[in-house]
Write a structure and sequence with these properties.
heterotrimer, A alpha/beta (about 270), B alpha+beta (about 70), C alpha/beta (about 375), B: about 70 residues, alpha+beta, Alpha-Beta Plaits, two-stranded antiparallel sheet, two-stranded antiparallel ribbon, 4 strands, C: about 375 residues, alpha/beta, Rossmann fold, 8-stranded mixed sheet, 5-stranded mixed sheet, 13 helices, about 40% helix, globular
Chain lengths: ~270, ~70, ~375
Amino acid sequence: MNHPLAESYFRMDKLPHIWCPGCSHGIIMASIARAIDRLGLDKDNVCIVSGIGCSSRAPGYMDFNTLHTTHGRALAFATGVKLANPKLEVIVISGDGDLSAIGGNHLIHAARRNIGLTTICFNNNIYGMTGGQYSPTTPTGDKATTAPYGNIDKPFDITKLAIGAGATYAAKVTAFHVTQMDKYIESAIAHKGFSLVEAIAVCPTYYGRKNRKGSAVEMMTWLKDHYIDFKVAEKLPPEKREGKELMGEFINVDAPEYTALYDALIDRLKD
Amino acid sequence: MTDKKENLTIHINQEWCKGCGICVAFCPKKVLAIGENGKSTMIDPDNCIKCGMCQMRCPDFAIFLGGSDS
Amino acid sequence: MIKFLQGNEACVEGALMAGMRFYSGYPITPSTEIAELSAERLPKVGGKFIQMEDEISGIAAAIGASLTGKKAMTATSGPGFSLKQENIGYAALAEVPLVIVNVQRGGPSTGLPTSPGQGDVMQARWGTHGDHPIICLTPDSVTETFYLTIRAFNLAEKYRVPVILLTDEITGHMREKIDIPDPSEIEIYNRKRPETGDVYHPYGVEPGEIVPRMADFGSGFRYHVTGLMHDETGFPSNSTENARKLMDRLMAKTVTYRDDIIDYEALYTEDADWLILAYGGMSRSARAAVKVLRQKGHSVGLFRPISLWPFPEEALSALAGKVKGILVTELNYGQIKLEVERIACGRCPVEFLGRGNGEVITPEMLIETFEEVAK
């Protein structure tokens, strides 16, 4: 028998996917499909949009209306899809470089508009497709093929960036914490307004190897040991919070959604 | 996916398994191992609690809980 | 209905009559009136307007909208046109119908934002990387802007190519009388869509048809669109044989169907010894000059490409074999002149009067140059 989730929501003739052994992207992609399944969405009404990069190859595997666009522009294409047909549930898959470097402008403006797009950021801290260059989320000091002496850049916190720009739903989670990931992605898709889930992913091939982070299992273990929910962290004494990375649902508020506002404008002009 | 847990069993698609070892490392009951072929293998089916965490963390749709008929 | 409109306004009127229901763009002089009027008019007909965060997203959103089945347009000028190039190539490869208006201004870079120029004609043809099909139309009046905008949409829908309406600050900002026809008098072409229940190959051409049928996202055909080379199923393919087939098919669009696409005006060319060749806003000076020159006894005609790409090559070639010379005039340093030289192929001299300083070439300047070169 076949994998039931794969059979229901993926293009079986395109699998197995191109990603390296232990790459988190398959974990996050499957979590998106589980969320869609639990929400009972009609596959014909779901549109998955991506840019360029490792994670942006995901839509090719997913059995929906799928759009693989130009580098950084997934949110811009998706804005057109959603505004032109608000009935579509539009989900954007974007890597850290795609979303926050070349596509950073579209991220902040999609968040500002509160347009009903769900963005799932596959954040593996590196440009994988081009072979391991540093991205806007590569930690300071870490190595990359373009930071052979260590990265002197300061990284973005993509979740905070989205919240600062006006996202009405934003959560951060890791590829290890799959139960929470399922929950956040489901909430993000159900949310009316701009939503973002930043999924911390491991790239054993480039980021891991360059920075001697060990195998995929070791990298996943690091995520397990270091990420805690910010609500849990608030209750911890300072010494126990040290060295921890925070995840969780950071914002979930209601605000008027852009395409609904535009449809209301059309109705108003009819009078 | 509404089958009862007792009717489910772990299936491993050896073609799709890339041998990353994630399912093995994080199985709460340690019922999986990497076999001689470098792929995930069930070594202790009796102790599998069918929690499905291997399926959720597998990046490759290679391991899953399904009907026990096959 | 008689109106008194700017070229930019006529463009929006034409777009709406053609069925435009989505506009996304970014403000830029001298094209901004197109965005402003679209913002006002689109919601009244149930359409959507969005001012995006930059030029790149302006075209990207329009492509996204077109994939849902809406007729989409974006408008810009030189600097924005440069920024849109990558996604023009995307639309060409993914075969997404789209109209891009470029109201040309003067100079490279920020240049002369409020002055006319025609320096983007080669960029309109080859601006994006890689070989690609493109259609580019250039109007010389407010009325023609209206009709060519409709034609741009029709051609985009028919051939699934991005169509560039290349106007300039002259035609964009000039006001003229225009008789807007009743919609029933206008022929509208809508993209062919697959029938429900068909086995759908999103990039396979049905026998006897011109381009693949295009399903709207959300209409039940779940398919993949990519800027990678793809096969008939729409999925990426690295096969060189497949890439050759796809590229051959795309590049043939403006060759096989050139007779349907190509448009030009030939005025007094039947008995002409000489031609003045001009296009867009500059053909207004050329037309005036030709009339005066004929009164003065010169046997001169006007040749005006209306489709710049594909270029009316056969018509010009036939004339080039008969005349004593061609005077090309354009607001650049000789971009279309190169094309004319290629077509004339040494059969007659190709003279040139151009400039790129934001000034219009007047009929008087043209008459003077003509009388020098055509002695």
